Amino acid sequence: MRLGLSLLLSLLAGAAHAGWDTLNMPVGVTEISRIVYDLHMLIFWICVAIGIVVFGAMFYAILMHRKARGAVAANFHESTTVEVVWTVIPFLILVAMAVPATATLIKMEDSRNPEMTIKITGYQWLWRYDYPDEGFGFYSYLATPRDAILDEAEKNEHYLLEVDRPLVVPTDTKIRLLITANDVLHAWWVPDLALKKDAVPGFINEMWTRIDVPGVYRGQCAELCGRDHGFMPIEVHAVPPEDYRAWLAQQKAAGP
Amino acid sequence: MSDTAAAHEHHDDHHPAGLWRWVTTTNHKDIGTLYLWFAMLMFFIGGAMALVIRGELFMPGLQFVDPQFFNSMTTLHALVMIFGVVMPAFTGLANWQIPLMVGATDMALPRMNNWSFWILPFAFAMLLSTLFMDGGAPAGGWTLYPPLTLQTGDALPFVIFSIHFMGMSSIMGAINVIATILNMRAPGMTMMKMPLFVWTWLITAFLLIAVMPVLAGGVTMLLTDKFFGTSFFNAAGGGDPVMFQHIFWFFGHPEVYILILPSFGVVSSILPTFARKPLFGYSSMVYATASIAFLSFIVWAHHMFTVGMPLAGELFFMFATMLIAVPTGVKVFNWVATMWRGSMTFETPMLFAIGFIIMFTIGGFSGLMLAIVPADFQYHDSYFVVAHFHYVLVPGSIFAIMAAVYYWLPKWTGHHYSERLGKWHFWLSTIFVNLTFFPMHFVGLAGMPRRIPDYALQFTDYNMLASVGAFGFGFAQLLFLYIVVQTVRGGEKASDECWEGAEGLEWTLPSPPPYHTFTTPPVVK
Question: Which residues of chain B are within 8 Å of residue A47 when distances are taken between CB atoms?
Answer without folding.
Answer: 365, 368-369
